[in-house]
Amino acid sequence: MHLQLTDRFCDRAKATTQTDYFDESVSGLALRVTARGVKAWSFLYTVGGKRRRITLGRYPAVSLAKARTMALEAREAVASGLDPRSRGVMTVADLVEAYVSKHTASLRSGAELARRIRKNIVPVIGKVPLAEVHRRDATRVVDAVTARGAPVEAAFAFQDLRSILRWAVARGDLDHDPIAGMPPPPGPKARERVLSDDEIRQLWINLPTALPRSPTCQRIIRLCLLTAQRVGEVAGMRHGELDLKTRTWALPGSRTKNGHAHVVPLSEAAMEIIGDEPSGEFVFGSGVRAVAVAQAIIRAQDRFGLPHWTAHDLRRTALTGMAKLGIAPLILGHIANHRTTTKAGMTLSVYVHHAYEKEKREALELWADRVRGIVSGADVVPMHRPMGRHAPSDGRGRP
Protein backbone atom coordinates (compact mmCIF):
# COMPACT_ATOMS: atom_id res chain seq x y z
CA MET A 1 0.00 0.00 0.00
CA HIS A 2 1.43 3.38 -1.02
CA LEU A 3 0.49 6.63 0.75
CA GLN A 4 1.92 9.83 2.14
CA LEU A 5 3.15 8.72 5.56
CA THR A 6 2.67 11.09 8.47
CA ASP A 7 3.59 10.89 12.12
CA ARG A 8 -0.09 10.59 13.01
CA PHE A 9 -0.62 7.70 10.59
CA CYS A 10 2.48 5.86 11.80
CA ASP A 11 1.34 6.21 15.40
CA ARG A 12 -2.16 4.82 14.70
CA ALA A 13 -1.36 2.29 11.95
CA LYS A 14 -2.83 -1.17 12.50
CA ALA A 15 -3.07 -4.36 10.46
CA THR A 16 -4.92 -7.65 10.74
CA THR A 17 -2.12 -9.35 8.79
CA GLN A 18 1.46 -8.22 8.21
CA THR A 19 1.26 -5.16 5.97
CA ASP A 20 3.83 -2.86 4.36
CA TYR A 21 2.86 0.83 4.07
CA PHE A 22 5.14 2.41 1.45
CA ASP A 23 6.03 6.08 1.69
CA GLU A 24 5.26 8.14 -1.41
CA SER A 25 7.85 10.75 -0.40
CA VAL A 26 10.84 8.38 -0.36
CA SER A 27 10.61 5.52 -2.82
CA GLY A 28 11.41 2.15 -1.26
CA LEU A 29 10.75 3.19 2.35
CA ALA A 30 8.08 1.10 4.07
CA LEU A 31 6.56 0.84 7.52
CA ARG A 32 5.85 -2.81 8.22
CA VAL A 33 3.04 -3.39 10.73
CA THR A 34 2.33 -6.87 12.14
CA ALA A 35 -0.94 -8.22 13.49
CA ARG A 36 0.54 -7.84 16.98
CA GLY A 37 1.15 -4.16 16.45
CA VAL A 38 4.92 -4.29 15.97
CA LYS A 39 6.09 -1.55 13.61
CA ALA A 40 9.45 -1.53 11.86
CA TRP A 41 11.04 0.47 9.05
CA SER A 42 12.56 -1.19 6.03
CA PHE A 43 14.02 -0.08 2.72
CA LEU A 44 13.52 -2.08 -0.47
CA TYR A 45 15.90 -1.70 -3.39
CA THR A 46 17.33 -3.56 -6.36
CA VAL A 47 21.01 -4.32 -6.79
CA GLY A 48 22.56 -6.71 -9.27
CA GLY A 49 19.12 -7.49 -10.60
CA LYS A 50 17.98 -8.83 -7.21
CA ARG A 51 15.37 -7.33 -4.93
CA ARG A 52 16.71 -6.64 -1.43
CA ARG A 53 15.36 -5.44 1.90
CA ILE A 54 17.20 -3.97 4.87
CA THR A 55 15.74 -3.15 8.26
CA LEU A 56 16.26 0.42 9.45
CA GLY A 57 14.85 0.14 12.95
CA ARG A 58 11.66 -0.10 14.93
CA TYR A 59 9.05 2.66 15.18
CA PRO A 60 8.78 4.87 17.25
CA ALA A 61 12.42 4.45 18.34
CA VAL A 62 13.25 5.44 14.77
CA SER A 63 10.99 8.32 13.81
CA LEU A 64 9.50 8.93 10.37
CA ALA A 65 11.98 11.74 9.72
CA LYS A 66 14.94 9.58 10.73
CA ALA A 67 13.69 6.66 8.63
CA ARG A 68 13.40 8.91 5.57
CA THR A 69 16.96 10.15 6.09
CA MET A 70 18.29 6.59 6.41
CA ALA A 71 16.35 5.51 3.32
CA LEU A 72 17.74 8.41 1.28
CA GLU A 73 21.27 7.49 2.34
CA ALA A 74 20.66 3.91 1.33
CA ARG A 75 19.25 5.01 -2.02
CA GLU A 76 22.35 7.10 -2.66
CA ALA A 77 24.47 4.02 -2.03
CA VAL A 78 22.43 2.04 -4.56
CA ALA A 79 22.79 4.82 -7.11
CA SER A 80 26.54 4.61 -6.65
CA GLY A 81 26.50 0.89 -7.36
CA LEU A 82 26.91 -0.11 -3.71
CA ASP A 83 24.83 -2.49 -1.62
CA PRO A 84 23.54 -0.66 1.50
CA ARG A 85 23.96 -3.87 3.49
CA SER A 86 27.73 -3.58 3.18
CA ARG A 87 27.86 -0.05 4.57
CA GLY A 88 28.20 -0.47 8.30
CA VAL A 89 25.49 -3.14 8.50
CA MET A 90 25.92 -5.45 11.48
CA THR A 91 26.54 -9.09 10.57
CA VAL A 92 26.12 -12.19 12.71
CA ALA A 93 29.88 -12.22 13.24
CA ASP A 94 29.74 -8.62 14.51
CA LEU A 95 26.93 -9.56 16.88
CA VAL A 96 28.86 -12.56 18.15
CA GLU A 97 31.87 -10.42 19.06
CA ALA A 98 29.61 -7.92 20.85
CA TYR A 99 27.93 -10.78 22.70
CA VAL A 100 31.26 -12.29 23.71
CA SER A 101 32.77 -9.04 24.97
CA LYS A 102 29.68 -7.64 26.69
CA HIS A 103 27.91 -10.73 27.94
CA THR A 104 29.89 -13.97 28.11
CA ALA A 105 32.97 -12.37 29.68
CA SER A 106 31.14 -12.20 33.02
CA LEU A 107 29.99 -15.82 32.94
CA ARG A 108 31.77 -18.65 34.73
CA SER A 109 31.93 -20.64 31.50
CA GLY A 110 32.45 -17.58 29.31
CA ALA A 111 35.69 -18.70 27.66
CA GLU A 112 34.28 -22.09 26.68
CA LEU A 113 31.04 -20.50 25.43
CA ALA A 114 32.94 -18.01 23.28
CA ARG A 115 35.08 -20.79 21.80
CA ARG A 116 31.99 -22.85 21.00
CA ILE A 117 30.14 -19.96 19.32
CA ARG A 118 33.13 -18.98 17.18
CA LYS A 119 33.62 -22.59 16.14
CA ASN A 120 30.02 -23.55 15.37
CA ILE A 121 28.18 -20.39 14.32
CA VAL A 122 30.55 -17.83 12.82
CA PRO A 123 32.04 -20.03 10.05
CA VAL A 124 28.55 -20.96 8.83
CA ILE A 125 26.50 -17.74 9.02
CA GLY A 126 28.97 -15.11 10.25
CA LYS A 127 28.72 -13.06 7.03
CA VAL A 128 24.91 -12.95 7.04
CA PRO A 129 23.59 -9.43 7.76
CA LEU A 130 21.86 -9.45 11.10
CA ALA A 131 18.64 -8.03 9.66
CA GLU A 132 18.44 -10.94 7.21
CA VAL A 133 18.88 -13.84 9.61
CA HIS A 134 16.26 -16.48 8.86
CA ARG A 135 15.16 -19.75 10.44
CA ARG A 136 17.00 -21.59 7.67
CA ASP A 137 20.25 -20.08 9.00
CA ALA A 138 19.69 -21.83 12.32
CA THR A 139 19.10 -25.05 10.40
CA ARG A 140 22.35 -24.52 8.50
CA VAL A 141 24.27 -24.18 11.77
CA VAL A 142 22.69 -27.29 13.28
CA ASP A 143 23.21 -29.35 10.11
CA ALA A 144 26.87 -28.34 9.85
CA VAL A 145 27.63 -29.45 13.41
CA THR A 146 25.54 -32.61 13.13
CA ALA A 147 27.48 -33.54 9.98
CA ARG A 148 30.61 -33.65 12.14
CA GLY A 149 29.02 -36.45 14.15
CA ALA A 150 28.41 -34.20 17.17
CA PRO A 151 24.66 -34.18 18.00
CA VAL A 152 25.24 -32.83 21.50
CA GLU A 153 27.33 -29.98 20.12
CA ALA A 154 24.59 -29.31 17.54
CA ALA A 155 22.02 -28.89 20.30
CA PHE A 156 24.36 -26.49 22.09
CA ALA A 157 24.91 -24.54 18.87
CA PHE A 158 21.17 -24.01 18.47
CA GLN A 159 20.81 -22.90 22.10
CA ASP A 160 23.76 -20.54 21.72
CA LEU A 161 22.32 -18.95 18.58
CA ARG A 162 18.94 -18.54 20.25
CA SER A 163 20.54 -16.85 23.27
CA ILE A 164 22.53 -14.50 21.04
CA LEU A 165 19.47 -13.44 19.03
CA ARG A 166 17.38 -12.90 22.15
CA TRP A 167 20.17 -10.75 23.56
CA ALA A 168 20.23 -8.75 20.32
CA VAL A 169 16.47 -8.13 20.55
CA ALA A 170 16.78 -6.99 24.16
CA ARG A 171 19.50 -4.53 23.15
CA GLY A 172 17.61 -3.24 20.12
CA ASP A 173 20.01 -4.63 17.51
CA LEU A 174 17.13 -6.71 16.16
CA ASP A 175 13.43 -5.90 15.93
CA HIS A 176 12.36 -9.47 16.53
CA ASP A 177 13.80 -12.93 17.08
CA PRO A 178 13.78 -14.66 13.67
CA ILE A 179 13.91 -18.15 15.21
CA ALA A 180 11.34 -17.57 17.96
CA GLY A 181 9.17 -20.65 18.34
CA MET A 182 11.54 -22.81 16.31
CA PRO A 183 11.95 -26.22 18.01
CA PRO A 184 15.47 -27.23 18.99
CA PRO A 185 17.09 -30.22 17.31
CA PRO A 186 16.33 -33.56 18.93
CA GLY A 187 18.98 -34.34 21.48
CA PRO A 188 20.91 -37.60 21.48
CA LYS A 189 19.61 -40.56 23.42
CA ALA A 190 20.72 -40.42 27.02
CA ARG A 191 23.83 -42.51 27.53
CA GLU A 192 23.50 -45.63 29.63
CA ARG A 193 27.13 -46.74 29.57
CA VAL A 194 28.31 -48.26 32.83
CA LEU A 195 31.75 -49.82 33.00
CA SER A 196 31.81 -53.44 34.15
CA ASP A 197 34.17 -54.61 36.88
CA ASP A 198 36.57 -55.99 34.26
CA GLU A 199 36.47 -52.67 32.39
CA ILE A 200 37.14 -50.72 35.59
CA ARG A 201 40.16 -52.91 36.29
CA GLN A 202 41.46 -52.59 32.73
CA LEU A 203 40.95 -48.82 32.67
CA TRP A 204 42.67 -48.26 36.02
CA ILE A 205 45.65 -50.45 35.19
CA ASN A 206 46.05 -49.21 31.60
CA LEU A 207 45.85 -45.47 32.32
CA PRO A 208 49.66 -44.97 32.43
CA THR A 209 50.01 -46.75 29.09
CA ALA A 210 47.03 -45.07 27.42
CA LEU A 211 47.92 -41.57 28.64
CA PRO A 212 51.69 -41.68 29.18
CA ARG A 213 52.16 -37.94 28.62
CA SER A 214 49.32 -36.84 30.86
CA PRO A 215 49.69 -38.04 34.44
CA THR A 216 47.37 -35.19 35.42
CA CYS A 217 44.54 -36.64 33.31
CA GLN A 218 45.24 -40.05 34.85
CA ARG A 219 44.74 -38.62 38.33
CA ILE A 220 41.57 -36.75 37.33
CA ILE A 221 40.04 -39.85 35.74
CA ARG A 222 40.74 -41.97 38.81
CA LEU A 223 39.37 -39.29 41.12
CA CYS A 224 36.20 -38.99 39.02
CA LEU A 225 35.66 -42.72 39.45
CA LEU A 226 36.29 -42.65 43.20
CA THR A 227 34.21 -39.54 44.02
CA ALA A 228 31.38 -39.78 41.43
CA GLN A 229 31.76 -36.07 40.70
CA ARG A 230 31.72 -34.34 37.32
CA VAL A 231 34.97 -34.13 35.40
CA GLY A 232 34.82 -30.32 35.26
CA GLU A 233 34.46 -30.09 39.02
CA VAL A 234 37.35 -32.48 39.61
CA ALA A 235 39.62 -30.86 37.01
CA GLY A 236 39.01 -27.42 38.53
CA MET A 237 39.61 -28.53 42.13
CA ARG A 238 41.25 -25.82 44.23
CA HIS A 239 43.36 -26.26 47.35
CA GLY A 240 41.14 -23.71 49.10
CA GLU A 241 38.17 -26.07 48.70
CA LEU A 242 39.92 -28.88 50.57
CA ASP A 243 40.06 -29.56 54.29
CA LEU A 244 42.80 -32.15 54.69
CA LYS A 245 42.09 -32.67 58.39
CA THR A 246 38.44 -33.58 57.93
CA ARG A 247 39.06 -35.07 54.47
CA THR A 248 36.34 -33.05 52.79
CA TRP A 249 36.04 -31.18 49.53
CA ALA A 250 33.68 -28.18 49.66
CA LEU A 251 32.49 -27.19 46.20
CA PRO A 252 31.04 -23.65 46.08
CA GLY A 253 27.80 -23.08 44.19
CA SER A 254 29.70 -21.15 41.53
CA ARG A 255 31.42 -24.39 40.50
CA THR A 256 28.47 -26.79 40.48
CA LYS A 257 26.03 -27.46 37.65
CA ASN A 258 22.94 -26.62 39.71
CA GLY A 259 24.47 -23.64 41.49
CA HIS A 260 24.22 -25.22 44.96
CA ALA A 261 27.22 -25.74 47.24
CA HIS A 262 28.24 -29.35 47.71
CA VAL A 263 30.48 -31.16 50.21
CA VAL A 264 32.20 -34.34 49.09
CA PRO A 265 33.77 -36.61 51.74
CA LEU A 266 37.10 -37.94 50.51
CA SER A 267 38.18 -41.55 50.94
CA GLU A 268 41.75 -42.47 51.76
CA ALA A 269 42.20 -43.52 48.13
CA ALA A 270 40.99 -40.14 46.93
CA MET A 271 43.28 -38.33 49.38
CA GLU A 272 46.26 -40.28 48.07
CA ILE A 273 45.54 -39.06 44.54
CA ILE A 274 45.05 -35.44 45.66
CA GLY A 275 48.22 -35.34 47.75
CA ASP A 276 48.95 -33.09 50.73
CA GLU A 277 51.41 -30.51 49.43
CA PRO A 278 49.60 -27.47 48.00
CA SER A 279 51.37 -25.84 45.08
CA GLY A 280 49.44 -22.96 43.58
CA GLU A 281 45.70 -22.39 43.62
CA PHE A 282 44.65 -25.45 41.61
CA VAL A 283 45.28 -29.07 42.55
CA PHE A 284 45.72 -30.11 38.91
CA GLY A 285 47.01 -26.86 37.43
CA SER A 286 45.15 -23.77 36.22
CA GLY A 287 45.12 -24.82 32.56
CA VAL A 288 43.25 -28.10 33.05
CA ARG A 289 39.62 -28.05 31.90
CA ALA A 290 36.95 -30.68 31.40
CA VAL A 291 37.19 -30.36 27.62
CA ALA A 292 40.93 -31.12 27.75
CA VAL A 293 40.33 -34.31 29.71
CA ALA A 294 37.50 -35.31 27.37
CA GLN A 295 39.71 -34.75 24.32
CA ALA A 296 42.56 -36.75 25.88
CA ILE A 297 40.16 -39.65 26.43
CA ILE A 298 38.92 -39.44 22.83
CA ARG A 299 42.44 -39.40 21.41
CA ALA A 300 43.43 -42.43 23.51
CA GLN A 301 40.26 -44.52 22.95
CA ASP A 302 42.10 -47.16 20.91
CA ARG A 303 44.75 -47.56 23.62
CA PHE A 304 42.35 -48.37 26.47
CA GLY A 305 41.16 -51.56 24.82
CA LEU A 306 37.58 -50.85 25.90
CA PRO A 307 34.32 -50.11 24.06
CA HIS A 308 33.80 -46.36 23.67
CA TRP A 309 33.49 -44.54 26.99
CA THR A 310 33.43 -40.93 28.18
CA ALA A 311 34.42 -39.11 31.33
CA HIS A 312 30.79 -38.77 32.39
CA ASP A 313 30.41 -42.56 32.22
CA LEU A 314 32.73 -42.70 35.24
CA ARG A 315 30.18 -40.79 37.34
CA ARG A 316 27.39 -43.11 36.20
CA THR A 317 29.59 -46.14 36.89
CA ALA A 318 30.42 -45.00 40.42
CA LEU A 319 26.81 -44.22 41.36
CA THR A 320 25.60 -47.50 39.85
CA GLY A 321 28.34 -49.37 41.70
CA MET A 322 27.32 -47.83 45.01
CA ALA A 323 23.68 -48.68 44.33
CA LYS A 324 24.71 -52.32 43.85
CA LEU A 325 26.42 -52.18 47.24
CA GLY A 326 23.12 -51.26 48.87
CA ILE A 327 23.49 -47.47 49.16
CA ALA A 328 20.04 -45.87 49.39
CA PRO A 329 18.90 -43.64 46.50
CA LEU A 330 18.59 -40.64 48.83
CA ILE A 331 22.26 -40.96 49.80
CA LEU A 332 23.25 -41.36 46.15
CA GLY A 333 21.33 -38.17 45.39
CA HIS A 334 23.33 -36.31 48.03
CA ILE A 335 26.61 -37.69 46.69
CA ALA A 336 25.65 -36.63 43.15
CA ASN A 337 24.27 -33.25 44.33
CA HIS A 338 20.97 -34.04 42.59
CA ARG A 339 18.35 -31.88 44.27
CA THR A 340 15.58 -33.56 42.29
CA THR A 341 16.25 -36.48 44.63
CA THR A 342 17.40 -34.81 47.83
CA LYS A 343 14.67 -32.14 47.83
CA ALA A 344 11.85 -34.07 46.18
CA GLY A 345 8.45 -33.49 47.77
CA MET A 346 7.31 -31.37 50.70
CA THR A 347 9.01 -33.44 53.41
CA LEU A 348 12.52 -33.41 51.97
CA SER A 349 12.39 -29.86 50.60
CA VAL A 350 10.87 -28.15 53.65
CA TYR A 351 11.29 -30.28 56.75
CA VAL A 352 14.48 -32.32 56.27
CA HIS A 353 17.66 -30.26 56.57
CA HIS A 354 20.08 -33.09 57.29
CA ALA A 355 23.04 -33.21 54.88
CA TYR A 356 23.81 -36.93 55.38
CA GLU A 357 27.54 -36.25 55.54
CA LYS A 358 28.28 -39.38 57.61
CA GLU A 359 26.26 -41.56 55.26
CA LYS A 360 27.94 -40.02 52.22
CA ARG A 361 31.37 -40.75 53.70
CA GLU A 362 30.48 -44.36 54.47
CA ALA A 363 29.17 -44.83 50.94
CA LEU A 364 32.26 -43.35 49.28
CA GLU A 365 34.62 -45.33 51.53
CA LEU A 366 32.67 -48.48 50.71
CA TRP A 367 32.94 -47.71 46.99
CA ALA A 368 36.69 -47.04 47.30
CA ASP A 369 37.04 -50.45 48.96
CA ARG A 370 35.12 -51.99 46.09
CA VAL A 371 37.33 -50.31 43.49
CA ARG A 372 40.38 -51.55 45.38
CA GLY A 373 39.02 -55.08 45.23
CA ILE A 374 38.20 -54.78 41.52
CA VAL A 375 41.65 -53.45 40.64
CA SER A 376 43.44 -56.09 42.73
CA GLY A 377 41.26 -58.86 41.29
CA ALA A 378 39.55 -59.73 44.58
CA ASP A 379 36.23 -61.55 44.25
CA VAL A 380 34.78 -60.52 47.62
CA VAL A 381 32.18 -57.76 47.60
CA PRO A 382 32.34 -55.89 50.94
CA MET A 383 29.15 -55.61 52.95
CA HIS A 384 27.77 -52.20 53.93
CA ARG A 385 29.49 -50.91 57.05
CA PRO A 386 27.32 -50.46 60.16
CA MET A 387 25.99 -46.95 60.61
CA GLY A 388 28.38 -44.73 62.53
CA ARG A 389 31.51 -46.73 61.85
CA HIS A 390 34.26 -44.65 60.29
CA ALA A 391 36.41 -45.77 57.42
CA PRO A 392 39.87 -47.15 58.21
CA SER A 393 42.63 -44.62 57.90
CA ASP A 394 45.70 -46.82 57.86
CA GLY A 395 45.96 -46.53 54.04
CA ARG A 396 46.39 -50.27 53.47
CA GLY A 397 45.31 -51.78 50.18
CA ARG A 398 44.53 -48.55 48.43
CA PRO A 399 43.93 -48.75 44.63
Structural class given helices, strands, pairing? alpha+beta
Number of strands: 8
Rg measurement, Å: 29 Å
Q: Give the helix level as a range of percent.
A: 40-55%
- Largest beta-sheet characterization: 5 strands, mixed
Question: Would you write up a description of this structure?
Answer:
It is a single chain. The protein has a 5-stranded mixed beta sheet with strand order 1-2-3-4-5, covered by helices on one side. The protein folds into 3 domains: 85 residues, Double Stranded RNA Binding Domain (2-Layer Sandwich), CATH 3.30.160; 80 residues; 180 residues, Intergrase catalytic core (hpI Integrase, Chain A), CATH 1.10.443. The longest helix has 21 residues. A hairpin with a 5-residue loop joins strand 3 and strand 4. Helix 4 crosses helix 7 and helix 8 crosses helix 18. 31% of the residues are buried. It has 399 residues and is of the alpha+beta class.
Question: Summary?
Answer:
It contains 18 helices and 8 strands.
Keywords summarizing the entry:
10% strand, 18 helices, hpI Integrase, Chain A, 5-stranded mixed β-sheet, 399 residues, elongated, single chain, 3-stranded antiparallel β-sheet, alpha+beta, disordered C terminus
Helix-strand blueprint:
Blueprint: E1 2-3, H1 7-12, E2 19-23, E3 29-33, E4 39-47, E5 50-58, H2 64-79, H3 92-102, H4 110-120, H5 122-125, H6 135-146, H7 151-171, H8 197-210, H9 215-227, H10 231-235, E6 242-243, E7 248-251, E8 262-265, H11 268-274, H12 290-299, H13 301-304, H14 311-324, H15 329-336, H16 339-342, H17 345-351, H18 357-376
Parallel strand pairs: 1-2
Antiparallel strand pairs: 2-3, 3-4, 4-5, 6-7, 7-8
Helix pairs in contact: 4-7, 6-7, 8-18, 9-11, 9-14, 14-15, 15-18
